[in-house]
Amino acid sequence: MTTQAPSAASDRPLDMIIFGGAGDLSARKLLPALYMAHLHGNLPADTRIIAIGRRDWTREQYLSFMEEHSRPFVDSKALDALAWDRFLALFDYVRIDVGAQGDYSRLCAAARRSAQRVFYLATSPELFTTICDNLTACGLVDEHARVVLEKPLGHDLESARAINASVGQHFPEQQIYRIDHYLGKETVQNLMVLRFGNAIFGPLWQAPYIKSVQITVAETVGVGSRAGFYDQTGAMRDMVQNHLLQLLCIVAMEPPVSLDPDAVRDEKLKVLRSLRPMTMAEIARDTVRGQYTAGAVAGEPVKGYLEEDNVPADSHAETFVALRAQINNWRWANVPFFLRTGKRLPKRRSEIVIDFADLPFSIIPSGPRKYGNRLVIQLQPEESIQLQMLAKEPGSGLHMLPVNLNLDLQQAFTGRRAEAYERLLIDVIRGRLTHFMRRDELEAAWAWVEPILNGWKELGDRPRSYTAGTYGPAASSALMARENMAWAEEA
Ligand code: BG6
């Protein structure tokens, strides 16, 4: 699939129109990100932000909502009273019941004819079709308009296709920005530089020099107030289908011919299409689902998933997934990719661990150990890259111990790091599609994930319990131990 060159930055005034403007995502992420973009002069001079909501609010009531629900999420060091007031001055509020076509006339009245319109759909995906139909019906979609789609983009392949098809009737692919906020993270973008800006790893970045790859996205938070959504979704749909597979793509892709959006996305698509579909036996053997029970995280007692508000007492939703994936291509033949994510784990920690192959033959005696050279790319909370080497322990004899070459990116670059949403919003405004998922990528990710979800259903696979504050069920360690490997914290 190709996407024609996007219409880049526009010299038109910007109307940013946010559906779900009074929702949780807007309050916590989008509005603070827009404030930061405004503070740093990254919004076009003549920007208006039109928040759309169902509530019968005046503009002033919406601004009070922002004061109460968004301002606390702005980094306090960046809060400047004057800048905040100027930011508020950009806003309008329009009440729309998204299903009521007549309501859109209010948006038509508020939007400027000559503006570059960005529609941010921060609503439930079931509403995307209706919103797009109504936007077209009232003449607001033109060749300059862009639409931003928030995840979850479907709950299976069919629903993802349906969303893509209906949005695609109104917007050509080059005007569609599918957000995966992990692609906006500084460190995730830096992964591309590590791989494609440094010659040193290139020749080693393949089988047989790499023995295995681990990708962990560990969270300490529980489900919080999102049980209504999360219980229908689970960690596989919420995290693996998008964030973890996107990380896997960046680790595993071939060098793109350029940084053009399609050049990059073509390579990611090839990785997704090379993921070996799992058989039922592999689903049973190579995947682990978990659900947290009461425990303690960072010394604080926390409830189990089933005791959280609005979680059904017999819920089977998984809050943890570990799995072993295999990429069927020349570069990665027989290199297992271990993916793991979960809530209520001991630490907030996202990292990629590349385990290099063992020496073909060692003349230096070493004790039993599970790894040799290992590259650890920490994405969050710290940004660092460590290369674990083996060195001689001082003293008599030749005893080898692992030591780290350590690159602390926070120390190396002390400048401000924009949050993922800020960076991605600026990309949308400037018409840069590279860090957004293309339609075929999204569908390829679902095509691999869906049979696993179906397999779990067929196997009647209830999630295994794990105590909050641990790294998931024991079966997750066993998944690697079986191959004489270990997750980074166990090695
Ligand atoms: C979201 C998921 O996409 O990512 C959440 O819906 C998860 O469940 C969040 O907590 C994690 O993002 P981050 O940026 O905090 O790692």
From TrEMBL:
Keyword flag NADP: yes
Active-site residues per Swiss-Prot or TrEMBL entry: H243 (proton acceptor)
EC code: 1.1.1.49
Transmembrane regions listed in the UniProt entry: none
EC supergroup of this enzyme: oxidoreductase
Oxidoreductase recorded as keyword: yes
Catalysed conversion reaction: D-glucose 6-phosphate + NADP(+) = 6-phospho-D-glucono-1,5-lactone + NADPH + H(+)
Biological or metabolic pathway of the protein: Carbohydrate degradation; pentose phosphate pathway; D-ribulose 5-phosphate from D-glucose 6-phosphate (oxidative stage): step 1/3
Residue ranges of domain Glucose-6-phosphate dehydrogenase NAD-binding in the record: 17-190
Binding site for substrate: H181, K185, E219, D238, K343
Glucose-6-phosphate dehydrogenase C-terminal domain span: 192-487
Record-linked SUPFAM superfamilies: Glyceraldehyde-3-phosphate dehydrogenase-like, C-terminal domain, NAD(P)-binding Rossmann-fold domains
InterPro entries: G6P_DH (IPR001282), G6P_DH_AS (IPR019796), G6P_DH_C (IPR022675), G6P_DH_NAD-bd (IPR022674), NAD(P)-bd_dom_sf (IPR036291)
Superkingdom classification of source: Bacteria
Residue sites binding NADP(+) per the record: R54, D97, V98, K151
Record key words, sorted: Carbohydrate metabolism, Glucose metabolism, NADP, Oxidoreductase
Family: Belongs to the glucose-6-phosphate dehydrogenase family.
Protein function: Catalyzes the oxidation of glucose 6-phosphate to 6-phosphogluconolactone.
Protein's recorded name: Glucose-6-phosphate 1-dehydrogenase
Species: Paraburkholderia kururiensis
